[in-house]
Amino acid sequence: MGNSNSRSEEEYQGARREAEARAAEAKQRGEEAQRLQEKVKAMEKSAKEAEQRAEASRQRMEEEAKRAREADERRRAADEKERQRRDAEEAERKRMMKEMMDKAEQDRVKAEKAKVEYERQAAEARKREKEAKEQADRMIKMAEEMRVQAEEATKKAEEARKEAEDRLMRGIPPDLHPTAEEKMKFRARYGLQTNKINIAIIGESGTGKSTLLNSIRGLSAGDDGAAAAGFDETTEFVEGYLDQRKPFIMWYDVPGANTPNVKGWTYFIDQGLYVFDVLVVVFSGRFTETVGTLLGNASKCGIPSFLVRTKADSLMRCAKEDSFPALSDAAAKELVAKNTRNMVAKNLKKMGLPDQRVYVLSRAAMKQWVVNDRRAFEMIHEVEFLDDIIKLLESTVHGATASYLDAKMV
Fold it and tell me: Where in this protein does the record put region Disordered (predicted)?
């Protein structure tokens, strides 16, 4: 019994130890299995990361390959564009070369034809020369007749040219004279009154006609009742201005000649200047053909005229600036007046017109004299000009009142 129990205990202990050994072994295998599982997981993670790295590397390689393809495409496109440019340049060069060669060939053909034609004409000329020698007397006679005819034709052409130039210079063509009906039309258009002395200020554009009219009336541009004045083509229509100091006179501002709107050679007839009682012909710089034409037309129509050179103040300043030693005011005035007289006399003679007095006037001096009865440094002929107009009215204008003619212009 005791032995039985002892064996049972040993067997139990042996079984327990075996079970413990198996349990320890199982635990060890479990731990190894866990380690193996963790290792597998680590390997799976490494494999996944490697796979991700491989994918990223593949994507980078694909992107680089794409960029490489795009760069290659751009390079090929640039190469193609450059090739097209070179081809175009080459084509243009070939075209131009072909044109030059074609032109050269055409010139050669023309030259060859000209040579053949020249030789043909030379042969014909030699033939005609031979024939001409046989008929020398007849040809000499014909040549003389042709020479006489040519001289006659040249003479007629020269006469026609001179006649045309003369017509242009006179303004009123020789075969055209204003009729009574035309005079009535212009008098009505301008509102001319028979109980007024109608004085027109005329000349080329830019010579200071409107400014002169204002100064004679004691006004400046911009004053109430003043005529518009400026450097451009200011006056567009004939307009009358009553002389407030001398109400018997109407001054008329006339558009300037030699502009796109007003032709010089037809100026006198187009503006109907033959209807005015007195004409004041104005110039400021050179004495032009238009000035002479206006004087000649006034004389033909029996209209009294006054010749005026404006901008005396500028002329005197220039005379003083251009002289050495410096001129005095009196010397400058005398020089300007003398040079103006000589210039006018020379040009009137050249145009076949009679000599005529010329007045050199200053706008500022004229206004100062008219308004303040005071002489100015620039004054030359202002007083004489106004006095001579009064004298003209006294001698030629009928119906002027004694009180008006006795009054001064200033």
Answer: 1-115
R_g over Cα of the chain:
56
One domain, residues 260 and 357: yes
CA angle at 399 for the pair 396 and 238, rounded to the nearest 5°? 75
Q: Is 197 in contact with 250 (CB distance < 8 Å)? A: yes
Number of folded domains that form the chain: 2
Same domain for 222 and 102? no
Cα separation, 90 vs 287, in Å, equals: 65
Task: Give 6-21 pLDDT, tens digit per residue.
Answer: 777 888 888 888 888 8
At residue 75, φ and ψ (nearest 5 deg) are -60, -45
Q: Give the mean model confidence (pLDDT) for residues 318-327.
A: 80
Please tell me whether residues 189 and 285 are part of one structural domain: yes
φ, ψ dihedrals at 318, nearest 5°: -65, -40
Q: Which residues pair with 305 in a beta bridge?
A: 279
Give the dihedral sign, CA 142/143/145/150: positive
- For residue range 96-153, list pLDDT tens digits in order: 889 888 888 898 888 888 889 888 888 888 888 888 788 887 888 888 888 888 888 8
Question: Any idea of the CA torsion for 14, 17, 23, 27, to the nearest 10 degrees?
Answer: -150
In whole angstroms, give the CA distance from residue 346 to residue 352. Answer: 10
**Would you say 382 and 331 are in contact if contact means Cβ atoms under 8 Å apart?**
no
Buried b (16+ CB within 10 A) or exposed e, 2-12: eeeeeeeeeee
pLDDT in tens, 70-101: 888 888 899 999 999 999 989 998 998 898 88
d(CA 198, CA 12): 165
Q: Which of the listed residues 150, 170, 190 is the one where a domain comes to its end? A: 170
Domain that holds residue 258: 181-399
Q: Is the domain of 280 the same as that of 143? A: no
Give percent of the chain with pLDDT exceeding 90.
19
CB–CB of 319/336 below 8 Å?
yes
Domain end point (choices 118, 139, 170): 170
The reply to whether 160 falls in a domain is yes
Instruction: Note whether 325 and 280 are same-domain residues.
Output: yes
Coil, strand or helix at 281: strand
For 199, the token pair is 């004085």
pTM above 0.90, yes or no: no
